[in-house]
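Supplementary Methods S3. Complex input for the calcium ion-bound model.
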Amino acid sequence: MNMRPRRTLASLARAIVPAALLLCAANRAEAANSLTIENTGQPATLPGDVTNDFNILTIKSGAVLRVLAKGTGPSTGRLHIRANRIIIESDAMIDATGSGHPGKAGLPGEGMGGGQVNGSSAGGGGAYFGGGGDGTSQAPTCGGPFGLGGSPYGTPSMLDLGSAGGSGSATPGMGASGGNGGGGVWLEAARIEINGKIAANGAPGNVLANIGAGGGAGGHVILDAYIIDWLPKAKIEAKGAAGGVGTAGVGGAGGGGIVRIHASTVSAPPVGVIDVNGGPPPAGCSTGVGDQGTNEFDDQNVVCPDYDGDGVQSVLCGETDCDDTNKDVAPGLPELCNNVDDNCNGEKDEGETDCAQGLICQAGKCGSEVNPDAGTTDGGAPAAPETVEYRGGCSLAPRAQGGFALAGLGLFAALGALLSRRARKAR
Ligand SMILES: [Ca+2]
Ligand SMILES: [Ca+2]
Ligand SMILES: [Ca+2]
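Predicted complex, serialized as structure tokens:
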């Protein structure tokens, strides 16, 4: 464990500005958020164009975190989550099915392995690590090949997307759209507990005028964790989807994608957890099937993370950073009045905090020890101390507020007034 540098700015501030500045500094620690996704019946989403950092991400039993499809707002069809701990409860799901390259009417599937088109016959399946199946027809003919399946491609280290199936028509805007490819999911954590499903499957091909389009290829799932707890309902899928089944043509099935597991403890999950199969052929045929994708398990380059770069590794791998998404939290740091355990001793706002003299830390805020308004005339318990909140969320208790106007004052104006009052008092 490396020694962390002292927070010199904060130390300086502590020495010369005892009240207002540090009340503001306390707000920084609120950046270390945890997120719990509840089962509301509606899928939740997270931004797909950034790294989503959390202390603890919990997806509650039955809840769904949906990866927005490529092209939906700024979404790239990928989701990257970095956290101390990720918990996917029983029957919960991270769903990137059909979030990859989109299928389009009258066109080959998008992506390097997009399924092809062939006149007005069934389209080919999309490819990624597994090749796409060719367009075919129903049993007993099991004909074709019509639109050709996409060729396999992909680099394991690059979080990419499954390609889409080809349309059931070669005329732009006409015919059934191919199924979308699967999206990309990358989870990085000190510890991942999975008892639900992560799915980055292709979407099935559509059917129009009895002609099927190709199915989408499976996408990409990466789990990078020091420890992974494989619980009984764990499932990770990057499957190719079936082509659309029409009486005049059946789309080729999408190929399988890739699942990569990197963990220090149990690198290979139990048998049956991973599914990267290609999409199925039409009933009674062997034509049109998608090829199997690939998977990879290893413990190479797995180290206990220091995501916040404060030089202290996560407590979840036996080290001491109790919030590895927040560089303002680590052993040895000063305890601030912010409802956060800044020094990782298991207690919040204990001992001496940054509150100015005469103020005490209550529920994460510095306030008057005795409320000047708390009379005994009503016989009730003293009311909570009053505070005034400045813009930006800083607050001062009445004793420190003095008589100056608060509205519109910046922090430093308020601070200047506070210090000059103190100087007057001292005289
Ligand atoms: Ca750290
Ligand atoms: Ca503490
Ligand atoms: Ca604290």
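Helices lie at 8-16, 20-25, 398-401, 411-426. Residues 137 and 249 are 4 Å apart (CA to CA).
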